[in-house]
Amino acid sequence: MRARAVAPHAALLGAGLVFNTQAASAFERPQAYNVRTWEAREGVPQSSVTGLARGSDGTIWFTTFGGLGRFDGKHAEPIAIPPELVIELSSLTGVVEEPGPSPRIWISAVENGLWTWDGQAFTRPEQPDRLASASAYHMDWTGGRLFVSSNDGGFVRQLDGSWTLLSEDTVFDLDGTPDGGAWGCVEGDHLVRYAPDGEETLRLE
Predict the structure, then answer these.
(1) pLDDT tens digits, residue range 61-102?
(2) Which of 40, 49, 71, 77 is most buried by a 10 A CB count?
(3) CB of 5 within 8 A of CB of 25?
(4) pTM (2 d.p.)
(5) In what order do the strands lie in the sheet with 35-38?
(6) Hey, which residues does 37 pair with through a beta bridge?
């Protein structure tokens, strides 16, 4: 059996986008990689990259403290922010693609909740007031639901577009399960399991 090649990937090193430009066999011994860095002068909106997600078409979407950008494998390109949204979208903390026939890009902004990009315009989706003023740490689409961790709670966007508040504590990470439940890393270093109805069923301290 031939070894499968591992596709080049990106790393967040706090100084722009850093990509391996040399593929390696899955079974080869570790080797040196060719590394190239893309910075502001090469299309990255700002040099502090805060989030990264791969789109369904292979595009790499990334957030910075200067806005949203995308990378097609060769070139980085900033997404222009309308003048009236510069304050709201100048500092972004995360990005994820909503699965579906017409994918939307969801982004989180510092103390400005969630926003979406449909390829044409930024839109503020319906969301709880406390999330709209929060800073999201992590977003995860699982089973058609969006799971969001933030400095002001853990949230789930349900299949019908409604929202469920899982925790009022700071939630650093929230990963959904196919049945609509979730595992969360909650303030105080607690690992918490949530049932689909939002009830806390397990807490490891």
Answers:
(1) 999 999 999 999 888 999 999 999 999 998 999 999 999 888
(2) 49
(3) yes
(4) 0.81
(5) 10-12, 17-20, 35-38
(6) 18
Give how far Cα 205 sits from Cα of 150, 176, 190, 200, 201, Å: 20, 20, 5, 14, 13
Share of the chain above pLDDT 70, in %: 85
Please give the Cα distance from 60 to 16 (Å, whole number). 13
Distance of CA 56 to the CA centre of its chain: 14
The first and second tokens of residue 119, run together, are 């390829």
**Pick from 30, 26, 40, 33: which is nearest to 11 by CA?**
33
Q: For residue 181, what are its two tokens? A: 């439940």
Which structure tokens are listed for 187?
């303030």
Token pair, residue 40, equals: 């502001």
Q: Locate tokens 């508040």: which residue?
A: 165
**CA 164 to CA 160: how far, in whole Å?**
11
Buried b (16+ CB within 10 A) or exposed e, 52-75: bbeeeeebbbbbbebbbbbbeeee
d(CA 76, CA 147): 28
Q: Give the strand order in the sheet containing 163-167.
A: 136-142, 145-150, 153-157, 163-167
Considering Cα of 140, then 99, then 90, then 86, what sign does the dihedral take? negative
Chain position carrying tokens 């591992």: 6
**Tokens at 195, concatenated:** 């049932």
**Cα separation, 52 vs 10, whole angstroms:** 9
Grouping H, G, I as helix, E, B as strand and the rest as coil, residue 142 is: strand
Q: Count the alpha carbons within 13 Å of 96 in the hemisphere toward its beta carbon.
A: 18
